[in-house]
Amino acid sequence: MKRKGKKPFPSRKQIDTFRFLAKWCKQTKAAEAEIRFYGDSDRILSSAAVWKSVDKHGNIIRWQSNHFFYIPYLSFKTMPYKMTLAMYKLHKQTIK
Fold it and tell me: Whole-model pTM?
């Protein structure tokens, strides 16, 4: 039987950063905003992308290596978001 490990979850400080990015994305009417942090040797240490959601009540966040979260506009909590391939293609299609 496989043992499941603890799933990574963003900290409170990271959630505040995501909310700032989502607010900026909404004000500029951008469909997607991405931020990357680089190390000394041009390695990506961390990255996050904010997408405008389909239901218009919050944003979808891609954090690190394909961990997806949903953050409502008036909330300080993130909820895990199950992203399927069809949903991913739909979001990429609406961005273009």
Answer: 0.72
Question: What are the sequence ranges of the domains in the chain?
Answer: 12-95
Q: Write down the residue that tokens 């039987």 correspond to.
A: 1
Neighbours of 62 (CB within 10 A): 20
CA separation for the pair 42, 6 (Å, rounded): 29
Q: What are phi and psi of 19, to 5 degrees?
A: -65, -40
Residue 19 contacts residue 76 (beta carbons within 8 Å): yes
Q: What are the mean pLDDT values of the chain's consecutive 10-residue runs (96 residues total)?
A: 67 84 82 83 82 76 84 83 83 70
Any idea which residue has 């409502």 for tokens? 72
- The pair of structure tokens assigned to 9 is 């979850």
**DSSP string across 22-66:** HHHHHHTT-SEEEEEEE-TTS-EEEEEEEEE-SSSSEEEEEETTT
Amino acid at 5: G
CA distance 81 to 41: 32
3-state secondary structure of 38: strand
